[in-house]
Amino acid sequence: MKKIISVINQKGGVGKTTTSTNLSCGLALAGFRVLLIDLDPQAHSTIGMGMADHCEYFVQDILINGRDIREVVCKTPTENLDIIAANIHLSKATNTLFNEHFREMRLHNALLKETDNYDFVVIDCHPSLGILEINALYACNFILVPTDTGRYSLEGFADLIDTIRGIMGSDANIRDYLRILVTIFDSREKGINDWVDEQLAEFSEIVLSTKIRKITGIKQAQIAEQPIMVYDEKSPGTEDYNKLTQELLSIW
Ligand SMILES: Nc1ncnc2c1ncn2[C@@H]1O[C@H](COP(=O)(O)OP(=O)(O)OP(=O)(O)O)[C@@H](O)[C@H]1O
Ligand SMILES: [Mg+2]
Q: Which of 108, 181, 215, 220 could be cross-linked to 139 through a Cys-Cys bond (beta carbons 3.0 to 4.6 Å apart)?
């Protein structure tokens, strides 16, 4: 396995799912074998890949019921891309997990057994920093933090990075395992973008040069239950997510 990537930010609605599904597609279309794990009871990655009614098992079957990854994966319509789906019952399962031993390591341990079938694993996280996200952080060796350009997304950002650093270990060099991705970006909003640059100045060495522009058509893609890369090859969103895929591949 080359990389296990957690797409994480406790702030809601910043593009985690859009990034998880499209990065997974980008890597799969580039010929890599990819596993997308939906670790969010909202199940947006599952729905966004058109898989809501197509999976027998769910991610909680790994976390709580001890099933192996290979029993739980389903194939998506995109070649080379499998998914472990989520559904709303993941919320309840999360409460059960609180009473279990080694609860933070469940996903990590499951992935340890799964070294041959995939080149990349992408984990789409819920907007919080609870037991599911801690599982994601222990399981991964790379972290992608999407943020939009809103004030509420960037205030408290340093705290988020500090928390992640605490979990990944202060000895590790953050440049080796974390990148920040600016999403829902509009180049016409000059004043806002200058402010965003100021907010991210202290992290400049880990901000990706690819930015994901505000994509028209993303809602139609959601209705079609397809990532924008599949829904509309000519969309600027497809161009941006292809650029992101290439930039990350150049780092790895
Ligand atoms: N690049 C983009 N351009 C325009 N709209 C976008 C873009 N990325 C995401 N959105 C919109 O923002 C909303 C939130 O996106 P998304 O679901 O990817 O965020 P999230 O961080 O996964 O949210 P949550 O925290 O609820 O899981 C979506 O409904 C989507 O329509
Ligand atoms: Mg999401």
A: 108
